[in-house]
Design a protein that fits this description.
heterodimer; A: mainly beta; Phosphorylase Kinase, domain 1; Elongation Factor Tu (Ef-tu), domain 3; six-stranded antiparallel sheet; five-stranded antiparallel sheet; 2 helices; 10% helix; B: alpha+beta; 2 domains; 4 helices; 8 strands; 37% strand
Chain lengths: 235, 193
């Protein structure tokens, strides 16, 4: 997991981030009566569109091109943000930003940066195996409602469904898609800035032009790298 | 809503390939811990699986799409260096509940031996640039292949003995075609009383 490229979510900011789960259903088509029965084969995979990413400064454009170079087409991997700020279970019920802490004497690191911590702290309770569709989580610092939220663990993105049981701070919820990689007990789950390991949808997805205004907005589409999770599970 | 997974197992000499008909993550058999990769079959493949399940087919050609070129190259290389012919291929159906959790043991619906494995690369043109698509086709046969015989062919004694030796090894050789060579050039005359 060491060398996974992460999308610089503050620098390359999209106007809209659309993360959607694409289920795999089969259907025989529409009947004469007008109905279309369909059956699900698989819970599906994620697709993420980063719409209208602002490319305004030199730093924007250079970072964009560097990512394009590293990815080198649709086989390259990158962890793409799936925005969940609007639904994440913040303890206060409203959006919160990262918690920044200095050293005990009030000084920052030599470059001026501070310790950073997610405002939400929720850990898994019990080991969740590959292919599971249910997970138990313990709330340490967060809003007491874990239905319909998104989270990621090791860049594998999930969303929760209905709650099946609540015992104290431990919530058991349905999760979709099926668990990609084992989640050991007590693992920190990322609710604040969930990410999803993706490939470019098309080889030339990150192409970019230069124009006379030196300003453009680019849309880039990603699809979940399910091959990686299969490789990880098999090894 | 129930779901059914199609599981395919190919026992190669160096290891076992496992894949299932899905688009998402891996599927792990809860009893054995075997990991099945998600890979997609072509429409023809589904049809031939169905024919195999109904016992109508004696051969089965399975095509997998969405295989990246790199992986196809590896398989090609493996095919070149290792014998794949004769490996056992098994197709099972796994019934699942509405949450995609298996409800019972997988049911084996087809067992055969691998006859051939081919890798096809296709190039198509598009506005975005040319794209390559690799397809891996697995050709499998089972004992019903022996029922297949070319129209108007003549059964020879040797063939028939070889067939019976495979179909029913413990029995004595089938002598059904013993006199075929005599009948081949036999002229039957109408009796003249």
């Amino acid at each position: 997991m060491a060398n996974i490229l992460v999308w610089p979510h503050r620098l390359l900011l999209p106007r809209e981030c659309e993360a959607r789960l694409v289920p795999f259903t089969r259907s025989g088509g529409r009947t004469l009566g007008g109905t279309r029965p369909s059956y699900r084969t698989d819970m599906g995979h994620w697709r993420i569109d980063l719409k209208d990413v602002e490319l305004d400064t030199i730093a924007h454009r250079r970072t964009w091109d560097a990512i394009d170079t590293i990815l080198g087409g649709s086989s390259g991997q990158i962890a793409v943000p799936a925005w969940a700020l609007d639904t994440a279970p913040y303890a206060s019920g409203a959006e919160e930003s990262d918690i920044l802490v200095s050293h005990s004497d009030g000084t920052p690191f030599s470059d001026g940066s501070l310790y950073e911590q997610s405002p939400i702290s929720i850990v898994s309770s019990g080991t969740t195996v590959i292919g599971a569709t249910e997970i138990s989580m313990t709330i340490i610092n967060g809003f007491a409602d874990l239905s319909g939220v998104r989270f990621s663990y090791n860049h594998a993105l999930y969303k929760t469904g209905q709650v099946t049981s609540i015992s104290g701070d431990t919530w058991t919820v349905r999760v979709s898609p099926s668990i990609r990689a084992q989640i050991p007990t007590g693992s920190d789950l990322e609710f604040h800035r969930p990410t999803c390991l993706c490939n470019l949808l098309e080889d030339t997805g990150m192409r970019r032009a230069a124009n006379s205004q030196r300003f453009e907005r680019r849309t880039v589409s990603f699809v979940e790298d399910t091959k990686y999770w299969s490789d990880m599970a098999a090894s | 809503m129930l779901a059914t997974h199609i599981l395919v197992t190919v026992a190669l000499e160096s290891g076992t390939l496992r894949f299932w008909d899905g688009v998402g993550g891996p599927y792990v058999d809860p009893d054995t811990g075997d990991v099945y990769r998600a890979s997609q079959f072509t429409e023809d493949a589904l049809q031939s699986i169905e024919a195999a399940i109904n016992g109508e087919a004696f051969t089965l050609a399975l095509s997998l799409v969405s295989v990246p070129t790199g992986a196809a190259d590896e398989i090609w290389e493996y095919d070149e260096t290792n014998p794949v012919s004769g490996s056992v291929i098994q197709i099972s159906l796994q019934n699942c509940d509405q949450y995609n959790q298996p409800t019972e043991d997988p049911e084996v619906v087809f067992t055969g031996t691998l006859d051939n494995m081919t890798v096809t690369d296709q190039t198509s043109e598009s506005e975005e640039g040319d794209s390559q698509r690799s397809t891996i086709t697995i050709e499998a046969t089972n004992v019903f292949t022996l029922r297949n015989i070319t129209n108007r062919a003549v059964l020879s004694d040797v063939d028939q003995r070889a067939r019976s030796a495979i179909l029913n090894p413990s029995a004595s050789a089938d002598r059904f075609c013993e006199r075929v060579s005599q009948l081949l050039s036999k002229t039957i005359r109408w009796p003249n009383w």
